[in-house]
Every structure is written in C-alpha cells, then in structure tokens.
Amino acid sequence: MLDLSPTRAAGLERLQAFAPEAGRAYATGRNADDSENGYPAVSVLSPWLRHRLVTEAEVLDAVLARHAPDAAAKFVSEVHWRTYFKGFMELRPSLWAGYGRDVRRQLDRVQAESGLRSEWEAACKGETGYEAFDHWARELVETGYVHNHARMWFASLWTHTLGLPWELGADFFIRHLLDGDAASNTLSWRWVVGLHTEGRTYLARNGNITRYTNGRFEPDDRLAGRAEPAGGMPNPPPGAPPQGDDWSDADGVLIHEDDLWADHVLPRMEGAPTAVLLSPEGRSPLRVAPKVLGWTRAAAEDAMRERGIAARWLDGPEEAAAWARTESLAKVVTPYAPAGPAADALRAAERSGLPLVRALRSYDARAWPKATAGFFKLKKAIPALTAHLPQRGAA
Ligand SMILES: Cc1cc2nc3c(=O)[nH]c(=O)nc-3n(C[C@H](O)[C@H](O)[C@H](O)COP(=O)(O)OP(=O)(O)OC[C@H]3O[C@@H](n4cnc5c(N)ncnc54)[C@H](O)[C@@H]3O)c2cc1C
C-alpha cells in the first residue's frame, strides 16, 4: 500500500528511502509499472514535488550527494522534465487558457452527444473491456497515482484506440491525480497526440505493455496500430521569461498550492501576516476528486504547521483582497505561480485589489528561459543548473 501522506515529513522520508535507488538502478528499472510492489524503481515523489512541499532543489541535492552526476543522470533529467514543462508553458501561457476553452467545449459535447457521453463514462469508470486500460482508470481513481509509463499507455489508448478527445483524458487525469499539474499534464497529453512535438505522436505497443507490467497484461490485438496527430492549438512562439518582482519591502505573504514550502520567501518574512489561498478546484470545470482537494489542503496545513505560522485561510480571490485591506498591507509577496489555476486565482485577487508582488525562485529563473523549444536545450544546461543548487553554494 502506497503511503502518500500529505506531510513534508512523509515526503522527506520517501526521498531518504529512495535516494540510494536514484542512480543506475533507477535508469534500468524506471520503466517497470510494478504497482503490486509499491513501484520500487521510481520515487513516487510527484505529489510532494508538484506542490513544492518538498522542492526540486532538495530532491536533486539529496540524490547528487549520493551519486555521481553520470550515475544519477537519468533521474536528474526526469526531474528536469517537470521544470521544462513548467517553463515551456510559462513562456506560452495561452496553452493553458486554450486548453481550458477546449475542455469546456468537449464537455459540452459530452452533454449533447449521448454516444460520446457513454464512451466517456465507460472510460472514466474503467469499463471499456480493455483490461489494462480499465485497471489504470480504477487505479487512478482509487489511489491518485499512476506510473509514468502507464500514463503514456493510458493516454495512447484513450486517444488512438478509443478515439476519445485528448482534452477529456487530460481532464480525467487532472481531476484525480494527486500530482495533477497544469503544465506536466496538459503538455504530456499534447505530446501523445502530436501537438507538443508537432506531428510526432506516441503509440502504445502491446509488447511494451506486457514487458513492463511483468506480464500482468496479455497482448490485446484491438489496440490501435496507427496514431494520427490530433487537431488542436499549435504551440505559440515563446514569450519573454518572467523576471519576478522586487519584494524587499513586502509586508504580507500569500501562499498557494504551487509552492507550499516557499523557502525563498517565508524565512525572510517571519512575523508578517500570512494567508493561504488554495484553488485546486480550478484544475477542471468538473468536480475535482475530494481526495485531491483533501490532499492539497492537508499539505498546505502541514507546511504552515511545520513553519509555525498561524496563517489566515482564504476562501477565494476576493477574500484575499479583503484580508490585505483589513491588515492594511501595502505589498503582499507570493511565490511565483506558473500558468495554471493558482496563477489564475492570484490574478483574480489582484483584480479585486490585492497589492501583489511575485517572488521568482532562482531555480525557475535559471531554467525556464531554456524551455523555448524541445527538452534538449534545457537538458544540455543541467550540469550548469545543478551547480547552482543550494548545497552547492547558491540560493
Ligand atoms: C499523459 C501524462 C500525464 C501526466 N500528468 C502529470 C501531472 O499531472 N503531474 C505530474 O507531476 N506529472 C505528470 N506526468 C509526468 C509523470 O508521469 C509523473 O511526474 C511521474 O510519473 C511521477 O512519478 P514519480 O514521482 O514516481 O516519478 P519518478 O520517475 O520518480 O521521477 C522523479 C520526478 O521527476 C519528475 N518527472 C518524471 N517524469 C516526468 C515526466 N515525464 N514529465 C514531467 N515530470 C516528470 C516528477 O516530478 C517526478 O516526481 C504525466 C505524464 C503523462 C505521460
């Protein structure tokens, strides 16, 4: 049974237990979807990393303290996929807005077209008759976690075999994943249907599924043998990377679910009025799974408890603005939130009058400008980027 407790202590414990395996063992074993044994070859750190209850820098530091860069190269590169996707979308925030519009359009179709509705319902309930697919659908809903390879296979079956719109699959994922993330999720689905790397689709193969699930799933000759690229919004050209604001004279702090530990902000703001604004329900137009809402809330509570902060819990963007007025705050600093529901909620709070400034992490400031095109450019910069990790001398 996976322990996905929404506490920083549980995340750090998992990191400590996994760090010895993050070298060559990870590189050779990571493809195996060994859910029956609790995924021994992968870290299962994504729920903590996604909310930065444990940060990328902490994970990379712990791993590089134990392994030579060569030995840990695969794991370090995978962590940078998260960084890359966030940067890629932050340079093109209209991808998140466009996805939001397209999901709504597809959900309207679900309402209007009974055939599509019953296929969509069967897929979400794990009742399609495709054994592996149905297993992952139920696993997702029950646990909130699915192995990376299974996510790829699932997305391939959803789109190429079942012929369902990819946006509905991305929405199903983000409503149930504990690590549900605007950038990693949307862009991974776009990658499967040939929108991220234009025209290049990902197609699940029987042999691959059988091999990496240890023979749990037999080859199924109904799987699509071809994958046509989907239509959809092409990648816009990259915009300028964000700079972050000067927050040296901030007098209040606003925490959100994209950066709960906020170790670039909170230690310098001790004693300042602090509030928490969470918006995980903004991940989907439909109801986000209670398990996801509960995890996010409990993780935020744990972060505040660990820091000894008696934070004010805000009910929405308007209440954030009202809180700042009541506290007479002139400048409220918040960790920079990349394109996604938290950034949407922060902008709404600003529109209601919250005087907000954004503190950009040096980790993001260094990496995001490299996310202009494919992963390779950022990957090439990994030695330089990891040289700047906190334990290696920089903040
Ligand atoms: C269709 C699809 C949807 C996805 N949706 C999400 C999502 O909503 N949120 C999310 O966090 N990840 C998403 N991923 C990426 C990836 O599957 C998960 O991050 C990974 O499975 C998490 O498991 P882990 O922590 O055991 O990973 P490990 O293999 O232990 O890797 C360590 C860390 O590296 C990062 N990482 C690894 N692989 C990837 C990847 N392919 N893309 C981005 N980051 C990666 C994660 O932070 C992960 O925790 C998606 C992938 C696909 C194919």
UniProtKB/TrEMBL annotation:
Domain Cryptochrome/DNA photolyase FAD-binding: 75-203
Annotated positions binding FAD: 26, 75, 78-85, 179-181
Native source organism of the sequence: Hasllibacter halocynthiae
Keywords on record: FAD, Flavoprotein, Lyase
Listed GO MF terms: deoxyribodipyrimidine photo-lyase activity; DNA binding; FAD binding
Region entry Disordered, spans: 218-245
Keyword Lyase: yes
Domain of life: Bacteria
Details of cofactor binding: Binds 1 FAD per subunit.
Cofactor: FAD
Name used for this protein in its record: Deoxyribodipyrimidine photo-lyase
InterPro entries per record: Crypto/Photolyase_FAD-like_sf, Cryptochr/Photolyase_FAD-bd, Cryptochrome/DNA_photolyase_1
